[in-house]
Design brief:
With 240 residues, this protein is mainly alpha-helical. It folds into two domains: 119 residues, Fe,Mn superoxide dismutase (SOD) domain (Helix Hairpins), CATH 1.10.287.990; 106 residues, Iron/manganese superoxide dismutase, C-terminal domain (minor pseudopilin epsh fold, 3-Layer(bab) Sandwich), CATH 3.55.40.20. It has nine helices and three strands. A three-stranded antiparallel beta sheet has the order 2-1-3. The longest helix has 31 residues.
């Protein structure tokens, strides 16, 4: 297997804990703006933020944005490339003693890259509410928008350690579902396509909110781009 083929295959395998390999998101890695997670050679890349570092003030401060995007998200992207290289080295040398370690690392780092890339697009600098088909799906699945907010907020606030609250579309049931994700990849429902993610790792809020995770989660609901969430739902539904 040549380098290009291996890296492209590894990108799909690494993302499988979050997205089905045949998902619309995965199919458009190379042509969908910030969702482009790899270049034509399968090397993981980080797209520029869709706004300036102070765009989300006062709910997310400029310094946190810079550190979060550059060193935490960027670090995960770079680590994922290293993981792939180490797997390739193990294969080239026929030494598989550490391949399970690097495969786990790839799942962790690439899942971080996926979720962070969604996270940045899920945010805006104005308050809005879901409308149209998204609102109908929310009401069908959770009763009301207010009930969904309470559900995903509580789920996000109570993640053990670092992790995420996730609203996703489950194509097998054709309904929305809420996940509590520990780290970047644990407690995943197979097949679920994330359409809204809430980062509750301490690096996302500690400079401004100190240890008050709940305040940060509540603040995020004032800057969620429900238009972006609706767009992601529409894309997810094209799978079925």
């Amino acid at each position: 297997m040549d380098r290009k083929s291996f890296l492209q295959n590894a990108a799909i395998i690494g993302g499988a804990t979050i997205l089905p390999a045949n998902s619309l998101f995965a199919q458009h890695l190379s042509s969908n703006g910030i969702d482009q997670l790899a270049d034509v050679n399968g090397i993981f890349i980080q797209q520029p933020l869709p706004y300036s570092n102070n765009f989300l003030e006062p709910y997310m401060d400029e310094e946190t944005m810079h550190l979060h995007y550059t060193f935490h998200h960027g670090g995960a992207m770079k680590a994922a490339n290293h993981d792939v290289e180490m797997i390739r080295k193990a294969m080239d040398t026929n030494n598989f003693e550490t391949v399970d370690y690097w495969t786990k690392k790839l799942s962790y780092h690439f899942s971080s890259h996926v979720l962070h890339s969604i996270f940045w697009t899920n945010l805006t600098n104005k308050q809005m509410n879901p409308t149209g088909d998204l609102l109908l799906e929310i009401e069908k699945g959770f009763g009301s928008f207010e009930k969904l907010k309470a559900y995903i907020a509580q789920t996000s606030k109570n993640v053990d350690g670092g992790g995420w609250g996730i609203l996703g579309y489950q194509p097998y049931t054709r309904r929305l579902t809420v996940l509590q994700c520990e780290n970047h990849e644990k407690l995943t429902q197979w097949g679920v396509i994330p359409i809204l993610v809430i980062d509750v790792w301490e690096h996302a809020y500690y400079l401004k909110y100190k240890n008050k995770r709940a305040e940060f989660v509540d603040a995020l609901f004032k800057i969620i781009s429900w238009e972006n969430v609706a767009d992601r739902l529409a894309s997810a539904k094209k799978l079925v």
